[in-house]
Amino acid sequence: MNVIITGATGMIGKGLLLECLDDQRVGSILLVTRNPVGVVHEKIKEVILKDFNNPESISNELAGYDAVFFCLGVSAGG
């Protein structure tokens, strides 16, 4: 299975990424992030998307994947 993960720099997304790296059923992982994740692995391909309001700019990168995990979120500090 080939998967796409958005939000892999956050707590949920990073945990999901680690699980996908350990899972033998996952062959490749496309990370769509605003900032580099900083994890290097043969399964990972990373695409930086600064403007998530314009996903069409990376549409050619999204073909061939079986599942998408949308882990984007906003955190508030206070």
Topology:
Elements: E1 2-6, H1 11-22, E2 28-33, E3 44-48, E4 67-70
Parallel strand pairs: 1-2, 1-4, 2-3
Quick rundown:
By secondary structure, the protein is α/β, with parallel strands linked by helices. Helices cover 15% and strands 26% of the residues.
Question: Could you explain how this protein is built, in words?
Answer:
- The protein is an alpha/beta fold.
- The protein has a domain at 1-27.
- Helix content is 15%, strand content 26%.
- The protein contains 1 helix and 4 strands.
- A 4-stranded parallel β-sheet has the order 3-2-1-4, with helices on one face.
- Strand 1 (2-6), helix 1 and strand 2 (28-33) form a beta-alpha-beta unit.
- The protein starts with a strand and ends in an 8-residue tail after the last strand.
- 18% of the residues are buried.
- The model has no long low-confidence stretch (mean pLDDT 93).
